[in-house]
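Below is the record:
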Amino acid sequence: MNARPISGASAVGRRGRKGKGWALISGALVLTLAACGGGGGGKDAGASGDGKASSTQQGKQQSTAAVTIAPKSGATGVDTSGALKVDVAQGKLTEVTVKDAKGTQVDGTLTGGGTSWTPSVHLAAATKYTVHAVAKDSEGREAAEDSTFTTLTPKNTFLGYFTPEDGSTVGVGMPFSVNFTRGITNPKAVEKAIRITTQPAVDVEGHWFGNDRLDFRPEQYWKEGTKVTVDLNLDGVEGRSGVYGEQHKTIKFTIGRNQVSIVDAKKHTMKITQDGKVIKTLPVTTGKPGYDTWNGQMVISEKLTVTRMNGETVGYGGEYDIKDVPHAMRLTTSGTFIHGNYWGGDAFGNYNASHGCVGLEDVRGGYDGSVPAAWFFNHSIIGDVVVVQHSNDRTVDPANGLNGWNMSWADWTK
């Protein structure tokens, strides 16, 4: 009943005749109500003749479902993983809603036949969350519980520097690669926090190179036109003890036309293919004896219209220092490029003369757009693949550049 009760106590507390009068009236009301509540057995009686509660009263009984939320309401400094859990005894959860201050909802999973709920992902750091949980008992009666808590503010953090850039169009060999500013000792948590979806759908798996780099790729080269979306949700991930991620970004990129170029170190040629068809053959020079070019599949990771190449930067001492090197594209972290060469004389198509790079005929500074190096530079994009064959050196290390394609799928997914 929701009617306002008559407050006899306050009336009795007053002094004077009016107070006594109200007390008498109040007593009369009590007597009257007692008489109305007697067990007369009529159809409007509050209880049946055998003393059992009516069906109306049974419907108002409290639910036996008992909902509990951890952490307790008002808690601060809550860990971002493993702390949040909703349970119910003598019932099943029918609704669990967890939101941050911006209204972003946290996905979760029901277990134990609907008796327990945990988040599917980690929580963000330094964030206030609200929890609303509803459960039903075996009679269908609902019980609800609400809570608020705030996650910890980390003292030590890490970031992930990624490639390719958001909004870019890249070649079919381009992995999604993340380099972390701190060594990761909890790789499963970090890998779980990076979700990749594609259109059309394709299985994409991650592989760790050491403890500070994680690359993702499909089993084969990307299909032309594939749209890739990366949810880089590192905020709140404990990458190592006491060190938490502090970024949450969405990166989207598109796979362009299928271009793979094949360098034959013995024939001193490079065949450029698109969709498997040769569209052009160019004369090249590769690494001379003792400085042979790596074999294997290498991905273009950087394009420089003009640069300077100094042997000291790649462990060759003062053997060379060449200025104004045109149309340079990086193939390995260690310093292998495919680039324009204006000092090679008649080496192109005839013999190998470089310190390990693949060279194409060019002019100093790259001002002539008609030379082979300029043509190749203008027809290449980040993520294109350059395959070197028949060199006297070994296959390039998969970790040296974005060159995980030199690893079998079985090894990649270990």
Q: What stands out?
A: The helical segments are 8-12, 17-36, 55-59, 187-192, 372-378, 409-412.
